Amino acid sequence: MPWTLNKNGVTPSVTLTSSEQMNLNTFMNAVRNGVHPRQAAQSWDSDYKEFGNSKIRQGQIRLSKGQRATFQVDDNTSTVTIIQVGGHT
Predict the structure, then answer these.
(1) Distance CA 68, CA 87 (A)
(2) How far out from the chain centre does Cα 76 lie?
(3) How far is CA 88 from CA 4, 12, 45, 47, 80, in A?
(4) What global pTM score does this model have?
(5) Where are the alpha helices (DSSP H) in the chain?
(6) What is the pLDDT of residue 40?
């Protein structure tokens, strides 16, 4: 089953720089194209992390030295749900 993205109107809590926004867009577009989130974050130094060991985990990528994106990874539905963009979580 291909991966899908759900961002439910989440907007960044800070103004992202152009490179931060580019990294976020790269990640989201890859997931929208069916790519697993871990692979979607491999085109830059994203420091991809997943927390938990269930079928639904929390994940995080680095957009820059100071900004992160936090999301939920649901293996049951192959869905990535963006929770927060900006800051450290």
Answers:
(1) 6
(2) 17
(3) 24, 12, 16, 13, 19
(4) 0.92
(5) 18-32, 37-40
(6) 97
